[in-house]
Amino acid sequence: MKILAALLLLSLLSCSPAEPKQSEQPASFDFVFSYGVMNKNVLDTVQGTYTKDLVTAGTATTNLSLTDEEMKQVYELMNEIGLWNYPNEIEGMNVIPASGYHFQILVDGKEQNIHWNGEFNENQTHRGFKRLTSMIIEMVRNKEANQALPESEGYYL
User: Does residue 6 fall inside a structural domain?
Assistant: First the structure.
């Protein structure tokens, strides 16, 4: 009976995730999120800035920060989708011009980088990552600082 209990305990322990999920947002949590064609749009929560791709007119940078509540929402969704277990490189669907997403995530002195090349399909990992990126992009779009930036000019071929 003791052997059976030990085997059961061992099997339960082996099912735990590789990176323990923290329910509370850590004291130190920031990220740099870049996206779009050539990853020219960049939200940097470390510096409190956002750079917008203006296409043929270059880029424009402004001071932009997420609220504590928004940072909490981002962190919680990262946990929910298991972002900590994503590989460093993910190949999405190829698109022209080349676009993608990049996260540099800083949590309590540890850094994780995720490069997502291309766009999303309908598998679970893609759907989760799309939810995360869409949420952050929408947060940025709703900020007055972003709305005050110039409109993009031209287009990519």
Answer: no
User: What's the whole-number mean pLDDT along residues 19-31?
Assistant: 75
**What is the distance, to the nearest Å, from the Cα of residue 59 to the centroid of all Cα atoms in its chain?**
21
Domain count within the chain? 1
Residue-range definition of the domain harbouring residue 47: 20-117+136-147
* The pLDDT of residue 149: 97
* Distance (Å, whole) CA 64 – CA 43: 8
Cis bond before residue 97 (omega within 30° of 0): yes
- Please give the average per-residue pLDDT across 137-156, as a whole number: 96
Say if strands 41-44 and 49-53 run parallel, antiparallel, or are unpaired: antiparallel
| Helix, strand, coil fractions of the chain, as percent rounded to 5 | 30, 30, 40
90: three-class secondary structure by DSSP: strand
- Residue 23's pLDDT is what? 61
pTM of the model: 0.82
